[in-house]
Automatic annotation (TrEMBL):
UniProt xrefs under NCBIfam families: deoC
Primary location class: cytoplasm
Protein encoded by which gene: deoC
Top-rank taxon: Bacteria
Family the UniProt entry places it in: Belongs to the DeoC/FbaB aldolase family. DeoC type 1 subfamily.
Task performed by this protein: Catalyzes a reversible aldol reaction between acetaldehyde and D-glyceraldehyde 3-phosphate to generate 2-deoxy-D-ribose 5-phosphate.
Protein name as catalogued: Deoxyribose-phosphate aldolase
Catalyzed reactions: 2-deoxy-D-ribose 5-phosphate = D-glyceraldehyde 3-phosphate + acetaldehyde
Keywords of the record: Cytoplasm, Lyase, Schiff base
Keyword hit for Lyase: yes
PANTHER family, per the entry: DEOXYRIBOSE-PHOSPHATE ALDOLASE
Classification via SUPFAM superfamilies: Aldolase
A Pfam family annotated for this UniProt entry: DeoC
Top-tier EC class: lyase
Amino acid sequence: MTLTRVQLARLVDHTLLKPEATLADVRALAAEAQHLGVFAVCVSPSVLTELGDLGGVAKATVCGFPSGKHTSAVKATEAAQAVADGADEVDMVIDFGRLRAGDVQAVREDIEAVRTAMPDTALLKVIIESAALTDEQVVAACEAAEAAGAQFVKTSTGFHPAGGATVHAVELMARTVGDRLGVKASGGIRTWADAVAMVEAGATRLGLSGTRAVLEGGEAGTGY
């Protein structure tokens, strides 16, 4: 696959979710996002209001992050508040422990609670933590997300010790949702080759923290 730097940048959620991030870091991320021409920035919900006007760059945040163990009511409230604070997109974490236990219905209801709490104009991505799941569980998570009305499935938080995105997981997720949902690959994508491999596997969005290094063909650090 041949991608230009501009084309790849337009697939990127430029991400800063480190708990130690300062407001200065967030503002620098916002400025860099506009300079790089990315699709969106993704920051913690508490700093959404610090982003200001990003022009054509969308604003994304996280919900139930990073464990997914929050109650559905808390996730729903968090998502609704995030949209009120300016988020165009919300990346929610499922309770993948329940998924691993086979309670797919609970996972679907959790996603539905968040989707219902958000206006139709806001986009919902569902983080399934694919590296911690079997292939069958990945498929079940994607099917639950689609049934619950989400617009995207996403591989990873980037914080789980099992790891981040893999080509295999992205291929499996893309095959499961077809062209009906987007697929976001996130976690551990640190080079141009990594990024292109994910797009070739079916990713329609990339979560990157070291965006500049990736776009310049270098290797990004290990931040999330």
